[in-house]
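Budget justification, computational time. The allocation requested in the original proposal was used primarily to generate structure tokens for proteins on the priority list. As evidence of use, we reproduce two of the resulting records. The first is shown immediately below.
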Amino acid sequence: MKKIVIGIVLFIIISGSAFFFVRNSDGSEIAKSDKQVENELIISMKETKVEKEKIEKLLTNSSKELKDNGFGEVGLSYSNEERILTAQVNDKDFLDDNKAQIENIIINTAKEVGFNDFKIEFWIDDRNIAQNKEDNELMESLDKVSRAVSDVLKEKGYNNLSYSLSGISKNEIIIKGIDKDIVGDDELATHISNAILSETNTNYTVKLKKKSESEIRDMEWQPILTAIKEETNKKFDEYRGFAYSFNPLPLEIIIKTNINKSWFKSSGEKVKEIENYVERIIELKIEELSIKEIPYEIIIRDKNNKKIN
């Protein structure tokens, strides 16, 4: 089902509902159901936001506690879909000696931030110690670069500038923003370069560019795509994955399910329910973010990856 997202989508929904009231005796019940779905989604997305904040605190605070206790080499990551926190260590002997203590630090930190219902798994990095050290140093350097760029942009009044960094490994940094005023600002580029030099003791050439229309579109839609992935995963047991593609338009939003249409008698109803749920997420996020119009298509796939809507 292909759609064109437009800024007055809520007006269309309201008008359509009013028409539905006239033509159907049970229209009020359907409208009420739609409103309930919307209210549930709003609550769910607020809960998701709160949980993300807790996860960020868990990872940040756990990393600090691990470092303070001599386990600074332990890396942490979290999978939202699987609700698994992964602790990366360098070798098996280290894990055998310290697993219980590392787990306790993470569990206690989770209690402090009010986060629960997750699993802890350990992953042993099989690369050599020198490579791991080099990777850690690179990550620390990138973090310093990012903070230096952010500080300078804020100092110059670009408080809401969305930007991305690239080319850092070549001692060249390309900063792409949505504000055309930064393009060709040699003074700003020099200021950023000096700030990075002060932080990292490395001299970078800084280039300022404006994001292309497609890059801006992709960036603007990321919060919507993330919300679709998170909320459908929370809502439907049938959910098994998510994908999307901007090229070529229309944007394809793909929901992968474990539905087997050959034996699931009510699969058609479930497919429609999922599709409507995704549409409602899109509508709510478009209204929230004021995203410009873009064609999109929602695709629901069964357990064999066959399109079923």
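The second record produced under the same allocation is shown here.
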Amino acid sequence: MPTPPRDPFALPGLYLLLCTGILDGNPGSRRIELDIGVAGALLTSLCVQGRLRVHHGGIAAVDTCPTGLAHVDRVLDRVGSSARVAGVGRWVENLAFHAYGDTLGHLVRSGTVDRTVRRSFGIRLEAYAPKRPAQYERLLADVRLAFFGYAPVSRTVTQVAALLRATGLHHVAFPGIPRRRLADWTALDGPLAEVHGAAELASIKTITGAVAEAVSGRLDTLRFCG
């Protein structure tokens, strides 16, 4: 089985790294999906690492000791200081505002992505590119294997794939394959179940379900207001 990432909280960064690549360096073009997807990734990684848990449809803190990662500790602090156990969907929505910027900043500071800035008609535009293209290509290849049910793949890779599916961005990783056909071909549930215990799998499904619902709700609101 592939070696898991040394950073136990790598999932949010890997999700955003993959999206930065498949969106041609312009992640701002799909901010709704990325905001909510990164929030879901943070919750998923913290639950899988035993820092949070899904309990009766809500998120509860288990261990709020700092991890040393600012974007992760912000989530731990917010959940740990909450006076009540809020629903998973509410946490996904509440965390989305900061999740994208915090995680993208971490990727830039850690040297995972390069940022370029330019101005067009007085508007500041930012673009991002994986600093190590080989790392991005390996991640993309592994995620594709997970989608089509091939094993072995790592736990983190299956989680990235599950978040791509939940946010509707999985079709971007498969250019040339129509969305309907891709939905018929994918077999992600097998690899997910193979590398996770029952409780972990239930938590991942609950969180990604909330992510999918939040993305759908925001996109519907945007279409209605537009």
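A brief technical remark on that second record: The two ends are 47 Å apart (CA to CA).
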